[in-house]
Amino acid sequence: MKFSHPIVEARLLKREKRFLTYCRMPEGEVIAHCPNPGSMKGNLEPESPVWLMDFGARHLEEGRKLRYKWVMVESQGTRVVIDTNCANAVVAEALKAGKIRGLPREFKSEHKVGASRLDFYFPAENAYLEVKSVSMGDGESSAFPDSVTERGQKHLRELMALKKSGARAILFFLVTREGSLRVRAAREIDPTYASLLDEAVAEGVEVLVYGTKIGRDGIEVGEEGVLA
Questions:
Q1: Residue 201 has what pLDDT?
Q2: How many whole angstroms separate alpha carbon 114 and alpha carbon 130?
Q3: pLDDT at 113 over 90
Q4: Is 145 helix (H, G, I), strand (E, B) or coil?
Q5: Which of 11, 134, 150, 227 has the most CB atoms at less than 10 Å from its CB?
Q6: What percent of the chain is modeled with pLDDT above 90?
């Protein structure tokens, strides 16, 4: 997935009010949109190198309140994509290219299931797939979620119900930390989610883990990983 606008470098100052990030650029301090609703634990160290998407001087004319959007950070020497909106586009691109083991290239996005929607549906296999973006971690290991996620809990319950109904149900962890191919449930942060994940695996919900390749101009699916 290629980034839609140029990427510029800055230094992280602080995150405020969840969706605002203060950064320092050579020309001075700027405010960038933070497209990550989680706690971002481990990815908020002041003075960390960050990369911002620059929508240009005419951003207001395009309906954007802020010129910049925070996309990446260097955390513990590792580049991390913190923009959770990237995950579905990256996975969709990989599916179309046949890069995801055991899944067809034809799918529908944002498929309605009950009162909510799951990210992908594969009509040929009656299979459903929900994507989770994983940015918290240390070294080669990552963990999800980085804050209590009632939405994530609901998705696990929906996947289990689909599996019991005879459909194929898949949870997809896209690890957006370079070099990390192991994911575990962050039981210390959300024990309910961790227990539901254990239950889902026992019920036959499939779990796929893939790393990422992160470049200056985009991000793509990398090697296959494991659920730890």
A1: 98
A2: 14
A3: no
A4: coil
A5: 134
A6: 87
Are 211 and 168 within 8 A, CB to CB? no
Closest CA to 173 of 141, 199, 134: 134
For residue 85, the cross-strand partners are: none
The full length of the chain comes to 228
pLDDT score of 116 more than 90:
no
Structural domain containing residue 97? 86-227
66 within 8 A of 32, measured Cβ to Cβ = yes
Do residue 184 and residue 222 come from a single domain?
A: yes
> How far apart are the C-alpha atoms of 61 and 66, rounded to whole Å?
11
β-pairing, 136-138 vs 141-144, is: antiparallel
Provide mean pLDDT across the span 12-34.
Answer: 95
Among candidates 132, 139, 224, which has minimal Cα distance to 185?
Answer: 132
What is the total count of domains within the chain?
2
Residue matched to tokens 């990815």: 43
